Amino acid sequence: MKIALTYNLKRKDDTLPADYFSEYDSQDTINAIISALKLKGHVVEPIDVEYPSLVSYFRKNRVDMVFNIAEGKNGKFRESEVPALLDYFNIPYTGSSTFSLALAMNKALTKKILRADNIPTPKFQIFIKGNEELSPDLSFPLIVKPNCEGSAKGISKSNVVDAKEDLFKVIKDTIKMYKQEALVEEFIEGKELTVGILENGKTTVLPILEIDFSSCKNSGEYFYSWRMKEYQGNADLGLVPTFHCPARLDKETEEKVKEAALKTHRAVGCLDISRTDIRLNKNNIPYVLEINPLPGLDPKESNLPIMAYAAGMKYEDLIEAILMSASERNGLIE
Fold it and tell me: What range does the domain containing 19 cover?
């Protein structure tokens, strides 16, 4: 099969915020996916979306499938940019549709859909200007996030607040920095989990991954902040969470968590893969924080591959499973 791999290459630019390129992929990840696809017998051409004319490339080059990990370039719904182009040219691609990718980028809108489907998610409020009245339904501690960002961009330990006067400063700073509305939601104190869904002939919920931050006390970080995601494993910074996969859960709680992730995957309309972030409250109720239809595929650090390894898969098997799910869905194989 001839495959184009569409991606954004992570780069450094000191004139931009430190987290600007956080969603983009490293050359190591790109090389790993290429190697995995070639190992399975495919011909692969990597295409950076910064390519002078992505439109021109697809007009001139025929491919059987696009393996898409591109985050797009601009705007609140950027993850849907490359799939929208591929839809226009009627080129099949891996992963979720333009609609699902755009939807999942909007945390508040996604949470409204989860509520409508009776999937627990923390109470929240959107702030557009930063001077709105705080809803009396919300209880501290609260966490402030940019509403349309991924990879924990705009989230640090200072975004978790216990007092109203601190809250509005963080809200206004977030709106100013990211030029979008701020999402304020109740911070769920409890176990942090993430759940991968893989579709390959059948829908599989991968072993749940538990991220234990008790080993990160020296850093002051105790949840998946941007620093935690960006510098994970850095002992000098104290950003050394412990991973448990499968998670340390009783059978009943495990089933509740998997059900919440699967319902979220289906509610958002995800295809082929997704990863849902969940926190358990003190009563072991799983609260869905958000879903990522375009999860990271770094073979060493990304959560989805870690869960796939726990399920007995090799990296190349995971990549092939994603490709085969998309191929079957598009009628390229039976």
Answer: 2-102
Check whether residue 319 and residue 198 sit in a common domain.
yes
Record the tokens describing residue 28, joined without a space.
């190591």
234: which strand partners?
239
| Structural domain contains residue 112 | no
Q: Is the residue at 114 inside a domain?
A: no
Task: Let me know whether 213 and 315 are in one domain.
Answer: yes
- Residues 23, 148: contact at Cβ < 8 Å? no
CA distance 178 to 181: 8
Secondary structure class of 25 (helix, strand, coil): strand
C-alpha closest to that of 224 among 192, 248, 257: 192
Pairwise CA distance, residues 146 & 41, whole Å: 41
Give the span between the Cα atoms of 275 and 269, in whole angstroms.
13
- pLDDT tens series, the chain, 334 aa: 999 999 999 887 777 777 877 889 999 999 999 999 999 999 999 999 876 678 889 999 999 999 999 999 878 889 999 999 999 999 999 999 999 999 999 999 999 999 999 999 999 999 999 999 999 999 999 999 999 998 888 898 999 999 998 999 999 999 999 999 999 999 999 999 999 999 877 899 999 999 999 998 888 888 888 888 888 889 888 899 999 999 999 999 999 999 999 999 999 999 999 999 999 999 999 999 999 999 999 999 999 999 999 999 999 999 999 999 999 999 988 6
Same domain, 138 and 265: no
Domain assignment present for 113: no
Q: Domain check: are 288 and 215 in the same one?
A: yes
The number of beta carbons lying within 10 Å of the beta carbon of residue 26 is: 14
148: enclosing H helix or E strand: none
Q: How many angstroms separate the Cα of 298 from the Cα of each of 21, 23, 27, 190, 194?
A: 15, 12, 10, 27, 16
What is the pairing mode between strands 160-161 and 142-146?
Answer: antiparallel
Instruction: Let me know whether 271 and 176 are in one domain.
Output: no
Domain CATH number, residue 175: 3.30.1490.20
What is the count of structural domains for the chain?
A: 3
Residues 177 and 282 in one domain: no
